[in-house]
Amino acid sequence: MARTVLVTGGNRGIGLAIARAFAEQGDRVAVTHRGSGAPEGLFGVQCDITDPAQVDAAFTEIEKELGPVEVLVANAGITDDTLLLRMSEEQFERVVDTNLKGSFRVSKRASSKMLRAKWGRIIYISSVVGLYGGPGQVNYAASKAGLVGMARSITRELGSRNITANVVAPGFIETEMTAVLSEARQAEIIKAVPAGRLASADEVAAVVTFVASDAAAYINGAVIPVDGGLGMGH
Ligand code: NDP
């Protein structure tokens, strides 16, 4: 059965691969963008997830065009890396406001309609770094670890209503976010990953569509790594 799916930050990178995977299986897919427009075949809504009014307007537009959001993929995220001693209040707040609070805003807006429908899937795109930590990533790791507590609290609140909230935690994926890493850093990462390579965004998308499927109805409050074994044990 076709569903209405919203992927925040689905205009590029991992989010776009996720959006395309849902579209390929016949779902109605909306993506947010901040001015770039939507890629062909996807319904685009302009939305900065740090602005609650824009979040509300985007959901209203999607509800009008495609129906209430049944599957929410909170994927939009940023990094702003620097060592703890150099990290400003602003750098910390901006990353947390986007990655964590932005996810809260879209979850809250989506959940009232999911409750009414007595069905819903919320999937947070976290990171291996959320639980593993990363030098220079105090802000990013804190925001990504926060998504685990968010998903698990939502699971306890809404789990009895056929609503699942899960976290997918990618390792290092070939996107613009990792393209900016130096070759030396990329080689270091590859050495640390048991799989011995980075992953493609499609490998993340395949897990996300599974978690959203009926087959995954009993997976709730889970953290599912897609990291080639990098974070094993957390
Ligand atoms: P990209 O940098 O390629 O894309 C980021 C996306 O987030 C863009 O669509 C961007 O929109 C959107 N975005 C950022 N800020 C906002 C905002 N305030 N409001 C709305 N949209 C926003 O990232 P990736 O595709 O690599 O990453 C996607 C997710 O996966 C992120 O949450 C990231 O933390 C996570 N991740 C990535 C890994 C990797 O190796 N790449 C590894 C682990 C996790 P716009 O086009 O408008 O800028």
From TrEMBL:
Where is each Ketoreductase domain found? 3-176
**SMART domains, sorted:** PKS_KR
Which UniProt keywords are present, listed alphabetically?
Oxidoreductase
Q: Which SUPFAM superfamilies match?
A: NAD(P)-binding Rossmann-fold domains
Tell me where on the tree of life, at the top rank, the source sits: Bacteria
Record-stated family: Belongs to the short-chain dehydrogenases/reductases (SDR) family.
Q: What is this protein called?
A: Beta-ketoacyl-ACP reductase
